[in-house]
Amino acid sequence: MRFSLARKDAPPVCSCEATVETPRRRVDFRGAALPVAAIALWWAVSAAHLVKSGLLVSPADVFRTALEQIESGALIRALSASLAREACGFAIGASAGLLLGGALGLSRVAARIVGPSFDTFKQVSLFAWIPLISVWFGLGDAAKVVFLSLAALLPVAAHTCDGIHAVPRKYVELAHALRYSRVQLIRYVLLPAALPSIFTGLYLALIYSWLATLGAEYLLVAGSGIGNLLIDGSEQFRMDLVLFGIVVVGVTGWALNALARFVERAVLARLHVTIQ
Asked: Which residue spans traverse the membrane (predicted)?
């Protein structure tokens, strides 16, 4: 990473820029080979009736179930409810994680007082909080949002703190030599250098909160959502509905992944921080 610090009449500005060149990407269809092969094998086994059980349904049955769920509006209702919880929990958890991680990374006092407790808090399994959350907040959307907020807070706080600590010491010393104020040091040196790590935390928080959404809907069963759609299919022994729900979960997770990567690259490119 290359920094250039210059001082003029105006307050000094430090700009950070990573100069790693990224090759032009080509469309690669090799990643589709495994899913296509799996669907073809699934179709062949179901068409040949090799499995005499209701546990294996054909892709055609799943496709018909998908059309029914879309036409009836059940899919839209379930998916919108899950995504609304995901967005709310992610926003709360990520905001709290940025504040906590920033405090741990910038303040030695906070690191000494809060750091050990945060390190202990990270070791507690996320699902271990569900009994306490259900007692305090019930089984409704409030409890699910609290659960998702915890899932998003941990990676954001950890990566924000680590990103600030990873800034080379020589850049900080050079900023001090140019008499940067505390605000200028954070704005022009620490924040740009830590952005890739911060975005990694936000990316992980988005994925973790989506996975936690399904867990919350399984364990805190009040309300609607994709998790409840899977539960209904399991209780009714409708494997077509279960498999359709799994496909929706996977496609939604892939879409969130792609969206997070797109936003990350757009923001870093705008700030002239390019990552490979």
From this structure: 32-51, 90-111, 123-139, 145-167, 188-211, 241-260
* pLDDT tens, position by position, 137-188: 887 888 888 999 999 999 999 999 988 888 888 877 777 777 777 788 877 7
* Residue 36, in any domain of the structure: no
Sign of CA dihedral 35, 36, 40, 43: positive
CA-CA distance, 33 to 132, in Å (whole number)? 45
3-state secondary structure (DSSP) of residue 274: strand
- What CATH number does the domain containing 141 carry? 1.10.3720.10
Token pair 């929990």 is at which residue?
89
Check residue 54 and report its DSSP letter: T
Give backbone dihedrals phi and psi of 17, rounded to 5 degrees, phi first: -145, 125
> What are the tokens at 163?
């990103």
Nearest by Cα to 165 from 95, 97, 107: 107
Give domain status of residue 51, yes or no.
no
CA distance 242 to 163: 40
- Residue 234 structural domain: 58-270
Number of domains in the chain: 1
pLDDT digits (tens, 9 = 90+) for 184-217: 887 778 888 888 889 889 989 998 889 888 888 8
Number of neighbours of residue 28 by Cβ within 10 angstroms: 7
H/E segment holding residue 228: helix 226-235
